[in-house]
Amino acid sequence: MRELDPARTAVVGVHWQHEVVSPDGVFGPFFAEQVSRHNVASYAARVAAAVRAGGGLVVYSRVAYRPGYPDLIPNTPSFAMVRERQAFLEGAPKARIVDELTPQVGDVVVTHVRLTGFFGTELDTVLRRRGVETLLFTGVATDLSVTGTVFEAVNHGYRPVVVSDACAAATDEAHRASLGTLGQLGEVVTAAEVVDRLAG
């Protein structure tokens, strides 16, 4: 793994919400088992703690909608299901970030209404104001919102680093295939490698 400048590094935790990673969430049937079986949230928490300790920035991207869903365009089956199931409502318990990754003082939470963290949000402004150059990625799903947000990060000029064991998809096969693609755009590393590099 290349050098990391802690002060210019941020970790972006993608969709660590109950609606996505808890069994009773709207997308839980797709992702909860994988997240639990591979202890993915615990690895993501280790990365976030290491970034904080090194003076970097911890960011969470989350989905949330206003009552009545005036900000939701149901142009995909997933978005249609969100509306049908009344999911991701702002303020609802299942829209919260899971306890293991509860944002701490100084962390930034970015809310969006589409698939990815940069689109229609202040994420790029927040990162540039802090002088961030390297983005570590954790979250769900590797082949959907994580990949999409990594693509956006590349287009915005950031160095992307995907933390392989801190991400999950609906299947191991989908996860591995996505890591293969993401490895062509940047580095794919483990949580232990990130922690060691930041500590060093």
Give an overview in words.
With 200 residues, this protein is of the alpha/beta class. The protein contains eight helices and six strands; from the N terminus they run βαααβαβαβαβαβα. The chain has a single domain, classed as Isochorismatase-like (Rossmann fold, 3-Layer(aba) Sandwich). It is 38% helix and 19% strand. A six-stranded parallel β-sheet has the order 3-2-1-4-5-6, sandwiched between helices. The relative contact order is 0.21. The mean pLDDT is 97.
Summarize the structure.
By secondary structure, this protein is of the alpha/beta class.
Approximately how much beta-strand content do the residues carry? 15-25%
Low-confidence parts lasting 5 or more residues at pLDDT below 50? none
| First-residue to last-residue Cα separation | 12 Å
What order do the helices and strands follow? EHHHEHEHEHEHEH
Mean pLDDT: 97
CATH first level: Alpha Beta
The helix content, as a percent range, equals 25-40%
Give the helix/strand class.
alpha/beta
CATH topology category name = Rossmann fold
Taking all Cα atoms into account, the compactness measure Rg is 16 Å
The CATH architecture term is 3-Layer(aba) Sandwich
Number of domains: 1
The order of strands across the largest sheet is 3-2-1-4-5-6
CATH superfamily: Isochorismatase-like
